[in-house]
Specification:
9% strand; 5-stranded mixed β-sheet; 14 helices; alpha/beta; 63% helix
Length: 282
């Protein structure tokens, strides 16, 4: 592990990673108590070998070290070019749990800055061109303001992929308004999916109310789920049952009078038995 000065680091790809305030608080406490245990991964810049490009998820460690007023960071320096290192980091899991949206940011950046085609990107990542297109689609379909909430850890990336991306494709403005309303509110992926499904199924009025105050909508659902079913009044239930019996009796009488054929002895006995059971029950 090599010690590098923080000012030597190039953090241009920091915005390609989602932040997690809770994880960073834990990392800060660990670094303060135990020091740095895991090195970040970097490559030397091609035009300035004294500066180093961060290619893994070391950004959160760097932010924590700065808060601790540290000047250096332990790093593993790979002997690779910048493009190869970025592809390697995305393909082989140097960034654990990289979301589809983060993969999309990386692919889009490589296409923009390195001029790589979808076919070339697919080849380098060991993926099909359609995989590359799907990842690019996530970035292209989601409004930039929504992506910024995700980068800052205010909206879960998985929730955005499952709910906000399809919402953005159907109604970009509603997607932006909903994201603004839920950002930083601590909603789970399931709760955001509930909101999206309600938007899908709702009328124009319901959609507007949901977008204006999603938390109120979720609270209303929770209160409805917690309400105990009202026990029916016994007397009212008895009267309802008797009414149904009377209706069935009248219908049976009409059919008895209008029967198209004589009942067989077995059928006659069955009718008589049912009538007797009804009489005994009353």
């Amino acid at each position: 592990m090599r010690e590098l000065e923080l000012h030597q680091l190039d953090l241009r790809y920091e915005e390609l990673r989602v932040r997690s305030p809770a994880r960073e608080r834990g990392l800060y406490a660990s670094l303060d108590e135990c020091g740095q245990q895991v090195p970040i991964v970097v490559v030397a810049l091609e035009d300035d070998p004294q500066r180093f490009l961060v290619i893994d998820d070391g950004f959160k460690r760097i932010r924590a070290l700065r808060r601790l007023k540290r000047d250096t960071v332990g790093a593993t320096v790979l002997d690779l070019g910048e493009t190869e290192a970025l592809v390697l980091g995305g393909a082989l899991g140097m960034v654990p749990g990289l979301s589809g949206l983060e993969q999309g940011w990386l692919v889009a950046e490589l296409q923009r800055s390195r001029g790589l085609s979808a076919q070339e990107l697919g080849r380098r990542f060991g993926r099909s061109p359609s995989w590359v297109s799907r990842r690019l689609g996530l970035v292209q379909d989601l409004p930039e303001s929504v992506q910024e909430h995700i980068r800052r850890g205010k909206i879960p990336a998985q929730a955005a992929m499952r709910s906000l991306v399809p919402l953005a494709r159907a109604a970009p403005k509603d997607c932006e308004k909903l994201a603004q309303a839920i950002a930083g509110q601590g909603l789970t992926s399931r709760e955001i999916q509930v909101l999206y499904r309600a938007w899908q199924d709702g009328s124009a009025l319901i959609r507007q109310r949901l977008i204006d105050n999603p938390q109120l909508y979720l609270r209303a659902l929770e209160e409805m789920a917690q309400k105990k079913p009202v026990e029916p009044d016994p007397a009212a239930a008895l009267l309802a049952d008797v009414d149904r019996i009377a209706i069935l009796a009248r219908r049976s009488e009409q059919r008895w009078c209008q029967k198209p054929r004589e009942l067989t002895p077995a059928e006659h006995d069955r009718v008589a038995s049912c009538l007797q059971q009804g009489s005994d029950a009353l």
